[in-house]
């Protein structure tokens, strides 16, 4: 949005793929925004910016500002449908055990072979990811999901799948760093650049792009952690006993 209304006053003479770029500029006194970039789009990289000036110069970084402005992104809204809930429970009973529960292995098959079949570009949900989701959703602490817990998980998977495809504007089946930021905004969350990069490193591929199942796993984990924080904090900070810290560590 900024560049739609502000023309650049200077730029690199040649846009080249080099480790170091040096420019000498004559500028009028004022406030300027310097925007480093990677050679290829949608890449993440570290950089060092050095400014030498004859006059006294004041500089600051604004990439992690809490007042950072975000591009408008459509949010996913879901209307509760009781018939749909019953249909999901009926489907669940077809694959659950005699106690009407599913474990991580059964959940993996349901997600990869039924619920998200044909929509994932990579190998699908790993068994470890499904174990993690069972722990996050299993409020009864049985190590398995009952019908209510399964439907709640299914609704989350559907919600975050819709968010994923809504923000995958490049139609690659993965989210770049900028698309991932938009996905957070569409989910009602705002994260700093550092946290965004950390999540891309933790849940994304080596290229920095994030597949559908990795995004869903990340969002379900974040949703759970937000609820735990609200339960254990005063809204601003949190002090944990050892038993509470061990409880939280099970989800991270």
From TrEMBL:
**Which SUPFAM superfamilies does the entry mention?**
Calpain large subunit, middle domain (domain III), EF-hand
Major localization listed first in the record, in broad terms: cytoplasm
Entry GO CC? cytoplasm; endomembrane system
| Any GO BP annotation | proteolysis
Show the GO MF annotations. calcium ion binding; cysteine-type peptidase activity
**Does the record's keyword annotation contain Repeat?**
yes
Is GTP-binding there in the keyword field?
Answer: no
- Localization annotation: Cytoplasm; Endomembrane system
Keywords (A to Z) from UniProt: Calcium, Cytoplasm, Hydrolase, Membrane, Metal-binding, Protease, Repeat, Thiol protease
Q: What is this protein called in UniProt?
A: EF-hand domain-containing protein
EF-hand domain location, by residue? Answer: 155-190
């Amino acid at each position: 949005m900024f560049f739609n209304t502000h023309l650049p006053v200077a730029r690199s003479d040649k846009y080249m793929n080099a480790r170091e770029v040096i420019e000498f500029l004559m500028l009028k006194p004022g406030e300027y925004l310097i925007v480093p970039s990677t050679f290829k789009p949608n890449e993440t990289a570290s950089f060092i910016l050095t400014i030498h000036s004859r006059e006294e110069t004041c500089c600051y970084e604004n990439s992690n500002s809490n007042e950072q402005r975000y591009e408008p992104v459509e949010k996913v809204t879901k209307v509760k449908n009781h018939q749909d809930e019953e249909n999901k429970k009926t489907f669940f009973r077809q694959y659950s055990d005699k106690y009407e529960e599913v474990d991580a292995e059964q959940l993996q098959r349901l997600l990869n072979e039924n619920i998200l079949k044909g929509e994932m570009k990579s190998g699908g949900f790993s068994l470890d990811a499904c174990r993690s989701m069972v722990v996050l959703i299993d409020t009864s602490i049985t190590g398995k999901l009952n019908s209510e817990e399964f439907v709640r998980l299914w609704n989350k998977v559907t919600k975050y799948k819709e968010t994923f495809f809504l923000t995958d504007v490049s139609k690659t089946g993965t989210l770049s760093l900028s698309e991932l930021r938009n996905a957070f905004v569409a989910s009602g969350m705002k994260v700093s650049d550092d946290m965004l990069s950390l999540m891309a490193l933790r849940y994304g591929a080596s290229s920095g792009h994030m597949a559908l199942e990795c995004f869903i796993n990340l969002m379900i984990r974040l949703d759970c952690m937000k609820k735990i924080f609200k339960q254990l904090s005063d809204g601003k900070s949190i002090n944990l006993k050892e038993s509470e810290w061990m409880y939280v560590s099970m989800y991270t």
